[in-house]
Every structure is written in C-alpha cells, then in structure tokens.
Amino acid sequence: MTSPAGDAPLIVAVPSKGRLQEQTLAFFERSGLVIRQARGSRDYFGTIAGVPGAEVQFRSASEIAREVGAGNVHLAVTGLDLLHETLGAAQEELAPGARLDDTAPAPAHLVTKLGFGHANVVVAVPQAWLDVVSMADLADVAARFRLKHHRPMRVATKYVSLTRRFLTGHGVSDYLIVESPGATEGAPAAGTAELIVDITSTGRTLADNGLKVVDDATMMRSEACLVAATGAAWSQTARVAARTMLTRIAADARARGVRRIEASVAGADRFAAIAANRFGATLPLPVEGDRLVLLCPAKAIHDLASWLIEEGARTVAVSSVDYVFEAENRLYDALARRIG
C-alpha cells in the first residue's frame, strides 16, 4: 500500500456503458448507494448520495481492471475474468483442478461477488473434432496437427494470459495464439484459427458457429464483482467512505438471504436456542415473554414454521427484511486486513 496523499477521496470505478453499467447502478441503489451524475448519463464522473468523500468514475470494463492494478482507484466493479486476464499474467500455470472463481489476483482484493454478469471462460473446438472430448485429447491433437500441417495449432482469443496459463497447465505446448478483439466464435469458420478460448453464458452462440466446449476446459466461472485495490493510497477519508459503503452493501446482502419470523409460543427462550442449532436462525432482539422473533435463512423458513406450529405456536408470520445492519462488518474487516 502506498502512502495516502492528504485527505484524498475514495475513488470508485464503475462500468461506463451497457447492461453491466445498468446492473451495477441498480446494485448500488438497492444497497442505499445512489450514484448521481451532475451532467446527466453522459457524465463520466459522479458522487454517491450520503457518502461524503467518495467519487465515482465511469470507465470501460477492461480499463477498470488496469486501474485496479495500478492503484489509481480504490473500489471497482468489473468482471472476474478481466481481472485474471489483466493482472494474472505472472501467476502460475492452471493445472487440472485449479479454480479461479473465488479469488482475485494481486494486487486486487475480492470484496464480494455481485450476482450478475455470469459467463464461463471456455476452450471450444469444432464439433467435427469428434475425437476431442477432454484436454488430454486436445494435447494429442496439437502434437499430431504439427506433424500433419507443419505449423502449430492456432487459438483465437482475447484472453491471451489465461489461455497460455491454462493450455500449458494441461499439457498443450504446441500452439499459436491469435489475438481476437471481437467475434471470436467465427474464427474457425473464417479459417483464422482452429479453436478458440472465449466467454459463454449458454453455449448457444458457440453451437450456432459449429463449436463445442471441451468437457474439462472451463477455465473459470466469471461474474461481476466488487474489488478493492490494495496498492491504492488509502487515506482516512477513503477508509471511512469505504466502510460506509460496505456496511450498506453487507446489510442488503444479509437481508436478501434471510426472512423475519415472528411467533408466539410458550418457552420462547428455549425455542430460540433450538432454532439456531436446527435451522441456522438468529435472534435479532431479546425474547419478551412468549414472543419470538427470528431471522432465518430463506431456504429454511418452511421447515422452521412447520416446526414452530408443531411445538404449539398458533400463528407464524413470515416477512421480508429491507436491511440487516450488524456491528460486525465482515466485508470491511477483510479489506482492512489487506490494506493495513
């Protein structure tokens, strides 16, 4: 971490266009973090209502990853695939079984996944390659391709770093990467490559272009994520603003994962302890008489409600919760440990 310059603000980078921008702004607004652009939607700078000391910059998704690496922003929303492609070039080979889904390459810190922008980074080959089902098959084909055509097998991709790490880690050594800034799925049909590495959500576009995903060749399952730059200059102002933001984000995430359950049952104290052990429920408020109020994981509400009825409750009311603010902020605490 570099030394902070005075009382510098928190810089938050968000996507500047497209569906990813819309989903990012909706995510922040849902968390009580409304981003305002003084000159309208074409303004590349903004502020966050209720968070003094925070400034928003609108940038392209690929540019955001570079800015995180350079420490020019503090928090950012971008795809996990772009982070690994941009910042992970010096990382080790991706051997079979290696997973990148839940980590961010240094100097980025993964704060939280955002639940949108899902896509898989995969190796896809022509459907006509019937003998290629696994990466081991592809390694054999690469060796035979050189003998037959007197040149290496060509791989079209915009993920140059990820492709090298993955192919090398899976024993494919004889290949040539052809950089493809767009429409990568059309490269084999156009004759500019034999196979591709690209992102896909459903696989439909690949199939429409006569391609198939190699069975064990999903490099990573990417999605949009909120990341922090550990190498940025974190002033006290930036830290306070970050804590405010992450407190609201954590409160929203907690609320979406639970439901409020209220019941009147004799021996409420005893049932609170049992509900915690059996159903993962928590007690947000002290028990008052026979009144029992619980926060229960959404997936367990029906079982918990049925159990309370069986134990003597006449009525069990279940409701959603807007926010759950808690003294412990795991998102910010994890960030604070990284930035010191």
TrEMBL record:
Pathway: Amino-acid biosynthesis; L-histidine biosynthesis; L-histidine from 5-phospho-alpha-D-ribose 1-diphosphate: step 1/9
Domain ATP phosphoribosyltransferase catalytic: 61-249
Protein name: ATP phosphoribosyltransferase
Gene3D superfamilies recorded: Periplasmic binding protein-like II
UniProt-listed InterPro entries: ATP_PRibTrfase_cat, ATP_PRibTrfase_CS, ATP_PRibTrfase_HisG
Gene Ontology biological process terms in this record: L-histidine biosynthetic process
UniProt KW Cell division keyword: no
Catalysed conversion reaction: 1-(5-phospho-beta-D-ribosyl)-ATP + diphosphate = 5-phospho-alpha-D-ribose 1-diphosphate + ATP
NCBIfam families: hisG
GO cellular component: cytoplasm
Family indicated by similarity: Belongs to the ATP phosphoribosyltransferase family. Short subfamily.
E.C. numbers: 2.4.2.17
Keywords: Amino-acid biosynthesis, Glycosyltransferase, Histidine biosynthesis, Transferase
PROSITE patterns noted in UniProt: ATP_P_PHORIBOSYLTR (PS01316)
Chain coiled-coil ranges: none
Pfam families registered for this protein in UniProt: HisG (PF01634)
Described function: Catalyzes the condensation of ATP and 5-phosphoribose 1-diphosphate to form N'-(5'-phosphoribosyl)-ATP (PR-ATP). Has a crucial role in the pathway because the rate of histidine biosynthesis seems to be controlled primarily by regulation of HisG enzymatic activity.
Molecular functions (GO terms): ATP phosphoribosyltransferase activity
